[in-house]
Design a protein that fits this description.
Blueprint: E1 8-10, H1 12-25, H2 30-45, H3 56-64, E2 75-79, E3 83-87, H4 93-111, E4 113-121, H5 128-135, E5 140-145, E6 166-171, E7 177-182, H6 189-198, E8 207-208, H7 218-223, E9 226-227, H8 238-256, E10 276-283, H9 292-304, H10 320-332, E11 335-337, H11 339-352
Helix pairs in contact: 1-2, 2-4, 4-5
The chain binds nicotinamide-adenine-dinucleotide.
């Protein structure tokens, strides 16, 4: 689908440079600003606009208020042949994530698996960025993070867990891959906020009101209620999403001794550091049966070639929607943005007194 004429296209490198400009303007060192820029560019390029440029002001604010620091480096507190426990030292989440996943990959090369858990971290963007780091080595990658509470557990009234994403990336043949990367709530918070702005009601599986009951008014869900776990109400299997969200907490906040569950700070709070827990895993498939990539390829090919149900054109596998978005960006010469997103970037540039983000000439 071609970009609407009102959209502006921003080459990936221009977005990367803009993120680095904004972050360094508030005192982030370039070696910390760059990993963040890589994750934000990847989010928008993959079509997850809620986790790219859109979140830049949050990271800027965290550095400005001192809630996130840039004068420290993550540190290994404990390690074995296959594990490491890391203190993120309250630096930007993507700096902690990159540090941890690189350790996990090194350990997977030596021991077949690397399992790394961090405390003292911050928002790391799209979880898939870290699982996909392992693909470059032909490894499977997994990543998890806890987040500020928004998910209302099945049968409860109030939120106790975050949108706690999970991701698994697995290599197939010829550069193909399976990339599952998802929140453990029915939808990300951003989708409810967008429905509110558009004046729409939301589907009954998305959120609850202040009494823990299904609510289709987005403003009430965001301000007074919370998000349903993946699946929605109990009768739709939402307790499984609740269980998955809690599983993420086991790997992150509980294993890592960071803030966890309802104790994680409120979303965008500037009164205390986030102290998030995160988990990064790399697995060498050669430690198991030979021919992993071939079988992965067979399974994905089978699914993609299945007859689509009435009204649908094709069956996808996880990672395909993002691949389609990246193809679209490549054809356009960059990432298409709605005028409001360009205005948001220009406003931020003016506030920080940096050069605005360059767009492709129309
Ligand atoms: N850092 C954080 O605190 C945080 C919290 C929540 C979410 N996130 C990120 O937000 C992003 C969006 O999450 P989401 O849950 O809204 O993603 P989503 O619902 O858009 O997609 C989830 C997964 O489903 C796959 N998928 C989508 N349509 C499909 C189809 N028809 N067939 C097969 N597979 C399909 C996608 O490839 C993806 O792997 C993710 O990158 C996630 O890591 C981050």
């Amino acid at each position: 689908m071609a970009a609407a004429t009102t959209e502006s296209v921003v080459p990936l490198k221009k977005l990367f440079d803009f993120v680095v400009r904004c972050m360094t303007a508030v005192g982030t060192k370039p070696s910390h600003a760059e990993p963040l820029a890589n994750v934000l560019v990847a989010a928008d390029n993959r079509g997850h606009y809620s986790h790219g440029l859109n979140r830049l002001d949050m990271y800027v604010k965290d550095i400005k208020t001192g809630m996130t620091v840039s004068d420290q480096e993550p540190e290994i507190l404990k390690e074995t042949a296959a594990t490491a426990f890391v203190d993120g030292k309250n630096v930007l989440g993507p700096v902690v994530g990159k540090f941890c996943m690189e350790i996990a990959i090194r350990k997977a090369k030596e021991s077949g698996i690397g399992w790394v858990v961090a405390c003292g971290s911050n928002h790391f963007g799209i979880a898939g960025w870290y699982s996909m780091m392992a693909l470059e080595e032909g490894f499977l990658g997994m990543a998890f993070t806890n987040t500020s509470p928004f998910m209302v557990p099945t049968r409860a009234k109030k939120p106790a867990l975050g949108t706690n994403p999970i991701t698994l990336a697995a290599p197939a043949k010829n550069g193909d891959s399976f990339v599952l990367d998802m929140a453990t709530t029915s939808v990300a918070l951003g989708k409810v906020e967008i429905s509110d702005r558009k004046g729409e009601t939301i589907p009954p599986t998305w959120g609850v009101d202040e009494n823990g009951k299904t609510c289709q008014e987005p403003a009430r869900v965001v301000s007074k209620g919370g998000l349903y776990p993946l699946g929605g109400p109990e009768e739709c299997g939402g307790y499984k999403g609740y269980g998955l969200g809690m599983m993420v907490e086991v790997f992150c906040g509980i294993l890592g001794g960071s803030a966890f569950g309802p104790n994680v700070r409120k979303w965008k709070s500037s009164t205390e550091p986030a102290n998030l827990g995160q988990c990064f895993v790399a697995i060498d498939p050669n430690a198991f049966a030979p021919g992993f990539a071939d079988r992965m390829n067979d399974l994905m090919t089978h699914c993609r070639n299945m007859e689509a149900s009435e009204g649908e054109t094709e069956v996808l596998v996880p990672g395909d929607p993002e691949r389609k978005h990246m193809d679209k960006c490549e054809k356009l010469g960059g990432i298409p943005y709605h005028p409001n997103q360009i205005k948001y970037a220009n406003d931020l540039a003016a506030e920080l007194k940096v050069e605005p983000m360059e767009t492709l000439k129309k």
